[in-house]
Design brief:
Elements: E1 10-13, H1 16-20, E2 24-28, H2 39-54, E3 59-64, H3 69-80, E4 84-90, H4 97-104, E5 107-112, H5 114-118, H6 120-127, E6 134-137, H7 144-151, E7 163-168, H8 172-183, E8 189-194, H9 203-206, E9 214-217, H10 230-243, H11 252-264, E10 273-277, H12 282-286
Parallel strand pairs: 2-10, 3-4, 3-6, 4-5, 7-8, 7-10, 8-9
Antiparallel strand pairs: 1-2
Helix pairs in contact: 2-3, 2-7, 3-4, 7-8
This protein binds pyridoxal-5'-phosphate.
Pyridoxal-5'-phosphate binds at residues 39-41, 69, 140, 167-174, 248, 251-252, 279-281.
């Protein structure tokens, strides 16, 4: 199976705050790779699709919350690369635009109890044990297969950035970047902005890598997962108006707001180049409007 490299240019953002602090801010537009298979979801699906095809699987089975960017990405990628898709959605039956779109891309949806969702590896093993056509993909595309694809994006960078910043949900994108930066021995520190409240245990994911390569920040979640504040919404609106780039409110708005606050507080060393990863997720923004 041939999967083309995604379109994901790096753009410099000329914003007075950064110019005044002697910083340069760049954004990697992973959000432009595909309208529905965007950003890290595209990167994480790539090797799953290749592996599924190699194993002659015809059916992708995956898991997500009711607004999951990953479910939608899997539905759209499944349609594009000719796999059947099934999504198990956490919690009681609901309807929203994301799930409707999943169905439009041909995904079968089933709502599952939180306990089954939590034990999804076993749940899949039990329910699909006699079905050799089905291929399991974890929530968010997490795991080493997905992370191999994420690391590849480092190959797109033609200069060395002092900081690469990403938002952190499950942490698998962050972990992949830290691992990739270590392997390539880049002179770069990866910053992860946690969008969950009380997710300090994410540090365990990257504990094995030298501290010079990473930093997780836990105070920019704005109240917790998918919670917003008027300040966050005002920030996203203002950022759109000064850059032409729209950010979602669940992940990338919080990440970019953190970068602005850190710059304001002189956290980054003068002369630094900062690269923010925009992993898409804009379908979630529509639910706000
Ligand atoms: C899924 C997602 C993330 C979080 O990625 P993890 O690897 O789960 O930490 C960040 N941004 C967007 C837009 C996403 O869809």
């Amino acid at each position: 199976m041939l999967i083309e490299n995604p379109y994901s240019p790096i753009e410099e953002l000329n914003i007075p705050l950064f110019e005044n602090k002697g910083l340069r801010l760049f954004i990697k537009r992973e959000d432009l790779s595909h309208p529905f298979i965007s950003g890290n979801k595209w990167r994480k699906l790539k090797y799953h699709l290749i592996e599924a095809a190699q194993l002659s699987k015809t059916h992708l089975v995956t898991f997500g919350g009711p607004y999951s960017n990953h479910l939608l990405a899997t539905a759209a990628a499944g349609a594009k690369y000719h796999f059947k898709t099934t999504g198990f959605v956490r919690g009681e039956e609901v309807s929203n635009a994301v799930l409707k779109l999943c169905r439009w891309f041909g995904m079968q949806l089933h709502f599952v109890k939180r306990s089954d969702y939590k034990n999804r590896v076993e749940f899949f093993a039990q329910n699909y044990k006699s079905d050799s056509e089905s291929y399991f993909i974890d929530e968010g595309g997490a795991g080493t297969t997905g992370e191999t694809g994420v690391k590849e994006l480092l190959g797109d960078l033609n200069v060395c950035y002092d900081y690469i910043v990403c938002s952190v949900g499950t942490g698998s994108t962050f972990k992949a970047l830290v691992e990739g930066v270590c392997e390539r021995r880049l002179n770069t520190k990866v910053y992860g902005i946690s969008v969950l409240k009380g997710a300090e245990n994410l540090n365990d994911l990257v504990q094995q890598y030298p501290q010079q390569y990473w930093q997780l920040l836990h105070n920019f979640h704005q109240g917790g997962y998918a919670k917003t504040t008027p300040q966050l919404i005002a920030f996203i609106q203002n950022f759109a108006s000064i850059s032409g780039v729209l950010l979602d409110q669940v992940y990338e708005g919080k990440m970019m707001m953190a970068i602005f606050e850190l710059a304001q507080e002189n956290h980054f060393k003068k002369g630094s180049k900062i690269l923010a990863l925009h992993n898409g997720g804009l379908n979630g923004l529509l639910s706000l409007l």
